[in-house]
Amino acid sequence: MEMSKKPGMRRLSILLPLLLALGLAGCAPKGLQDLSVTSARVVSIVPEGLTSLSAELEVGVHNPSARLTLTDLTGQAKYRGEALLDLSADGVVIEARTDSLYRLPVRCRLSGDVSLLGLLRTFEAPLSKDELTLSVKGRASVRGIGKDIELEDIPLGTLLDELR
Description:
With about 160 residues, this protein is an alpha+beta fold. The chain is built from three helices and eight strands, in the order αββββββαββα.
């Protein structure tokens, strides 16, 4: 059976672009409030052993303002307060005054004592929007001036509402 057809992997393919969208929305310094995510999709998911995977995300961004550089992007997905996935992504430069698509490689690793089977079982059951939370850290820079950003335990429901 193809990996992307399993219910748990489908839900994971929805979670990854949402995490990136949260990072982009939360890492915009003052003056860039009009920056918005216009689309997000998973291009590929590739398992790497039993505890990690790589994903490539494609995200559409509307940036009517200055060039924005995001670096040191890390995150964590939690289910009912327990860590599920540790995430990290390469830096990305959001060009000024554009509507563009960006491809971003993301690395995912199972947190702590979580097993791959346990992760898939978590995503098979119906999830409440507030049971799954996301935390993101990163550094946002505009014209060489940077700021560390940290968003903690944002419920998935809140993120979905923001993207609508």
